[in-house]
Automatic annotation (TrEMBL):
It comes from Cuneatibacter caecimuris. This is Polyribonucleotide nucleotidyltransferase. The gene is pnp. Residues 624-692 form the S1 motif domain. GO terms for molecular function: 3'-5'-RNA exonuclease activity; magnesium ion binding; polyribonucleotide nucleotidyltransferase activity; RNA binding. The lineage of its organism: Bacteria, Bacillati, Bacillota, Clostridia, Lachnospirales. Pfam families: KH_1, PNPase, RNase_PH, RNase_PH_C, S1.
Length: 695
């Protein structure tokens, strides 16, 4: 069966082909949006994976360089591990899809998106999100979809749906919204200080657009959808649940979890688990492997009831109360900038490093909008931060995602290259974690940049809100500053970062089938209130504005502009001239195609020497100009002087002294440094210099 479906979406044609390719997958959709082509497939294992207490979903977004007519770089000339952009896109697809699978489903599921052709007018990320929704919805895999996704840009205050690449480059907003039929299920945004009311307008404009796409997908599912297969439920055994809740009354479980110390709570739960294991060791040994999941479910039920019905949080805080905050700067004496931000048991130290622009990160991928990153934010989450032990294997998808979120939040306030010609790297080290470390890293990074003397436009702070819902849409409670337990057992992690004037980043993770408008409005209002408090009452007391100068251990940069036609003179044949300047002065020199030159170093005298060399190389000799040169060659008829690497001139023997000179060596020797004056051009058009006419 091969069927084709089409609709107009944001001024372009979206076409879905079902049954043409990948027939052995549980579901497959061959997606076309303009000239962008993505193959989306959904596959599931026949049996559940044993010994796990989570849904094993894998989402892949595969970038193929042939999609943009490129051959991959490197020696292998083939695609390797997923790029950072591909990982972030996989996460964006995962977040709205995961909540709609059954909670007790343990079969392995893989959603694969193969990007085969890219049209700059049609973003492949949106196509992959729609393809994942369609391929899963028409498959026999249990799924409470479909979802639809729309990207929103904003140019001169006007909202643009699914903006093209040229539009994205000038947009003040990069927003992705995913929806079910009734609710918003995922929000991801980067913004140039967009006000809260404008952000809400954009979110729900995208939600309306998504409803049209969902109606289109429903048509496809109605004609091509397979019956959903039955599966083995991995929910907690009913008899075990009844016995456990009788052995551990609700009051005892409340007492176990009602503490602001994570270690104490974990010890309490471990004690309950040991007691129950001993209880079942003889009569019900088959229940012991299920105890962990059963206790998790019991904790979740207890915490949710305490919060929703009793308005009691595990650590005793009010619903809107933020945990104890602390901020300090300059922890590391020789780092270019450092700051630490603490919120309860969440603690982040961010270190800033400044470097020449040549140290910016070069990107090799499908995204033509960004080929180089001047600002890099990296986030690390070691096992000791949560009291665990495991070897470090490098950053995982979560670490990459948290780093990208903080990076996105801070980019709008960074100075331009012209204002601050540095490559900038911030690294957030998680010292302790108990909820929302990504937002703590934004606060620490903002302070670290200011301590390093980076002239950011405004401070940025971030905070996260949580949610616990009841049986109806209007039965819910929003929590300000969620800790780990409230994140694990709650329904939402709504992260918002921004300045005093607007939002710079949003990331929303939920575990339910979507959020209503009142919940989103309340979460955005709560995060704004919390951001103001954090910036005014905590961050500003540690550092309120960027330092006037960069740290003494940071490299200094002098910029100058030269005629682009003179770049070759400065570089020299095979780089000999510029390399000689670098060797003599110990500086780094970057030159772009427009003739902007950056001289970077820590020794101001050597930096100025390099600048003088460059100015001499690009300057035209003028009559009367006095220069200092070094004797590099002596001939019978005169001496050759080097004024700068690659810039030479000759003094005729008759111009060495006011008195007769028989031999050049009587006046000059190799290596002498002398001052000479330019006499202009001789009869043959050559520049002439004089030693005897220097005044």
């Amino acid at each position: 069966m091969f069927k084709t479906y089409s609709m107009e979406l944001a001024g372009r044609t979206l076409t879905v082909e079902i049954g043409r390719v990948a027939a052995q997958a549980n579901g497959a959709a061959f997606m076309h949006y303009g000239d962008t082509v993505v193959l989306s497939t959904a596959t599931a294992s026949e049996e559940p994976r044993e010994g796990i207490d989570f849904f094993p979903l894998s989402v892949e977004y595969e970038e193929k360089m042939y999609a943009v007519g490129k051959i991959p770089g490197g020696f292998n000339k083939r695609e390797g591990k997923a790029s950072e952009h591909a990982i972030l896109t996989s996460r964006v697809i995962d977040r709205p899809m995961r909540p709609l699978f059954p909670k007790d489903y343990r079969n392995d599921v893989t959603l694969s998106n193969l990007v085969m052709c890219v049209d700059p007018e049609c973003n492949p990320e949106v196509v992959a999100m729609l393809g994942s929704s369609i391929s899963t919805s028409i498959s026999d895999i249990p799924f409470d979809g479909p979802i639809a996704a729309t990207q929103v840009g904003m140019i001169d205050g006007e909202l643009i749906f699914n903006p093209s690449l040229p539009q994205k480059k000038v947009s003040d907003l990069n927003l992705t919204v995913a929806s079910t039929r009734e609710k918003v299920i995922m929000i991801e945004a980067g913004a140039n200080e967009v006000p809260e009311d404008k952000m809400l307008e954009a979110i729900f404009a995208a939600h309306e657009m998504n409803q049209k796409v969902i109606a289109f997908i429903d048509t496809i599912v109605a004609e091509c959808g397979k019956p959903k297969h039955s599966y083995q439920s991995c929910d907690v055994d009913e008899e075990l649940w009844a016995d456990m809740t009788a052995a551990v009354p609700a009051e005892q479980m409340e007492e176990a979890v009602f503490t602001d110390e994570k270690q104490k709570r974990e010890a309490n739960i471990h004690e309950l688990k040991e007691m129950l294991a001993a209880r079942y060791e003889e009569e019900h040994p088959e229940w012991i492997p299920m105890l962990g999941e059963a206790l998790y479910k019991y904790q979740k039920k207890t915490v949710r009831k305490m919060i929703l019905k009793d308005h009691k949080r595990p650590d005793g805080r009010d619903i809107t109360q933020i945990r104890h905050l602390a901020a300090e700067i300059d922890l590391l004496p020789r780092a270019h900038g450092s700051a630490m931000f603490t919120r309860g048991q969440t603690q982040i130290c961010t270190v800033t490093t400044l470097a020449p622009l040549s140290d910016a990160q070069r990107l090799d991928g499908l995204d033509e909008m960004e080929t180089e990153k001047r600002y890099m934010h990296h986030y690390n989450f070691p096992s000791y931060s949560v009291g665990e032990t495991k070897p470090s294997r490098g950053p995982g998808r979560r670490e990459i995602g948290h780093g990208a979120l903080a990076e996105r939040a801070l980019i709008p306030v960074l100075p331009t290259v012209e204002e601050f010609p540095y490559a900038i790297r911030t690294v957030s080290e998680t010292f302790e974690s108990n909820g929302s470390t990504s937002q703590a890293s934004i606060c620490a990074s903002s302070m670290s940049l200011m301590s390093a003397g980076v002239p950011i436009k405004k401070p940025v702070a971030g905070i996260s809100c949580g949610l616990v819902t009841g049986d109806t849409d209007d039965d819910y409670i929003v929590l300000t500053d969620i800790q780990g337990l409230e994140d694990f057992f709650g329904d939402m992690d709504f992260k918002v970062a921004g300045t005093r004037d607007g939002i710079t980043a949003i990331q929303m993770d939920i575990k339910i089938n979507g959020l209503t408008r009142p919940i989103i409005e309340e979460a955005i209002a709560r995060t704004r209130e919390a951001r103001m408090y954090i910036m005014d009452e905590v961050m500003a007391k540690a550092i309120s504005e960027p330092r006037a100068e960069v740290n003494k251990y940071a490299p200094k940069i002098i910029q100058l502009q030269i005629d682009p036609a003179k770049i070759g003179d400065v570089v020299g044949k095979q780089g000999k001239v510029i390399n000689k300047i670098i060797e003599e002065t110990g500086v780094k020199i970057d030159i772009d195609d427009d003739g902007f030159v950056s001289v970077c170093g820590t020794d101001h005298e050597m930096m100025q020497k390099a600048v003088n060399y460059i100015n001499t190389i690009v300057a035209e000799f003028e009559t009367g100009q006095v220069l200092t040169g070094k004797v590099i060659s002596i001939k019978d008829f005169g001496a050759f002087l080097e004024f700068a690497p690659g810039k030479e001139g000759m003094v005729h023997i008759s111009k060495l002294s006011k008195e007769r000179v028989n031999r050049v060596e009587d006046v000059l020797t190799l290596g002498d440094v002398v001052k000479v004056v330019c006499l202009g051009k001789d009869k043959m058009g050559r520049i002439s210099f004089s030693l005897k006419d220097v005044k």
